[in-house]
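Cross-check.
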Amino acid sequence: MHPSRPPSDPRVPLAHAAAEAHHGPARHLHASKPGERPLALVGGGDHAVVVIDAALRSGWQVLGCFAEHCREGLVQLGSDPVAATPEQLAEMALMVAFAGKPGEGVRAAAIARLGGVHWATVIHPSAVVSPSALIGQGVYIGANAVIGPEADIGDHCIINTAAVVEHHCRIGAATHVASGAVLGGGVQVGSLSWVGLGSRVRDHLDLGPHVVVGMGAVVVRDVPAHTTVVGNPAHVLEKLGGP
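Predicted model, tokenized:
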């Protein structure tokens, strides 16, 4: 489960950080904000296009993408940001801008390789983020998404278009809540999980780390770690190996 927030956790409510935020939603103190440094993306595919759209709408200067191949119209900065000099990386804010596939862990590996760079948090201006929500660094929140009061969004999460994360939810690091998914109040989702398109999770449930919720699933009971669930009501499709 998402661990309890330690007293030293640098994420703060909007009430303490609104004067520094560009658009208003709560932000991680260590996350770069629009105007501080330009944005460079890791990944050059479909999700990068979506992130760039949100970034430009919310005041970011976008340099381009680090990727082997970029969608037409995107500026390619190189194939791998690790090849950039420390001085170059210090002048930009980075975001891992590809969704990957459920359960594969490629995004987490890319984040780990880059280490202590300046991470950007990009929030579409149409998203509704409660002033009391806590938002990690490297997070993307898409158009018309809703983050409820006292929700806690871990580092490097994707809260995609029109997803709803209700009050007091806690979302672990590098988890993807896909477009149109709805999490009821008080849901806890572990790190490196994937909540699929249009799925529903009943309030106050616990979903472990490395969980995959299939598209359109309706989850009505807790889901243990390393488990894929599908259907309505959701049932176990497979249990993957894990610690």
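The chain is about 10% helix and 25% strand. The first strand starts at residue 39 and ends at 42. Passed to J.P. for a second look.
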